[in-house]
């Protein structure tokens, strides 16, 4: 099975999961065989700046991806992936290693995709840009805390 994670960093399984599929800077592709990691590859998102609707799902199909795991993805994109036979898992967060472990142990809480809204005024764009930076920093902190909790749980 080939799993593609969205990532905010290019650090393999140590990366933080990115919230938005289409605009994430990196993809981390993990080959799994019998729940064992066989290969991990971090690649740049070739369409991070812009892409045509349906272009990324087609790209993922060419990469032979079976599952996409991301923080968020729109319902239209999910439909495209479904048409290509690629399962999407959304609503995840944390360090990829932890998210992978949760996925392999059926412990990921899956959320339905929600319609995304886009700002219409310059002020909204500026405010949203600032919030995105803050949210990214918070996601990283939450991911690190989640990893610490997992390590503590393993010691108990």
Task: Please provide a written account of the structure.
The protein has 156 residues and is of the alpha/beta class. The protein has one domain (2-155): 2-Layer Sandwich (Nucleotidyltransferase, domain 5), CATH 3.30.420.130. It is 38% helix and 19% strand. A 5-stranded mixed β-sheet has the order 3-2-1-4-5, with helices on one face. Residues 111-125 have low confidence and may be disordered.
Secondary structure blueprint with pairings:
Elements: E1 2-7, E2 26-33, E3 36-44, H1 55-62, E4 67-69, H2 75-83, E5 87-89, H3 96-104, H4 122-155
Parallel strand pairs: 1-4, 4-5
Antiparallel strand pairs: 1-2, 2-3
CATH homologous superfamily designation? Dinitrogenase iron-molybdenum cofactor biosynthesis domain
Structural class assignment: alpha/beta
- CATH architectural arrangement: 2-Layer Sandwich
Q: Percentage of helical residues?
A: 25-40%
Number of strands: 5
Total count of helical runs of at least 4 residues: 4
**Rg (CA only):** 16 Å
A few lines on this structure:
This protein is of the alpha/beta class.
Task: Quickly list its features.
alpha/beta, 5 strands, 5-stranded mixed β-sheet, Nucleotidyltransferase, domain 5, 38% helix
């Amino acid at each position: 099975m080939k799993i593609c994670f969205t990532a905010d960093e290019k650090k393999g399984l140590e990366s933080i999961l990115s919230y938005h599929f289409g605009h994430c800077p990196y993809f981390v592709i993990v080959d799994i065989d019998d729940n064992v990691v066989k290969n991990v590859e971090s690649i740049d998102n070739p369409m991070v700046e812009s892409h045509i609707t349906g272009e990324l799902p087609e790209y993922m199909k060419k990469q032979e991806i079976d599952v996409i795991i991301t923080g968020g993805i729109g319902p239209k994109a999910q439909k495209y992936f479904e048409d290509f036979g690629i399962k999407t898992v959304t609503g995840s967060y944390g360090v990829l290693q932890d998210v992978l472990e949760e996925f392999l142990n059926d412990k990921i809480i899956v959320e339905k995709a929600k319609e995304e809204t886009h700002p219409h005024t310059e002020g909204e764009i500026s405010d949203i840009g600032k919030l995105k930076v803050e949210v990214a920093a918070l996601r990283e902190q939450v991911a690190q805390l989640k990893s610490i909790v997992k390590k503590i749980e393993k010691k108990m």
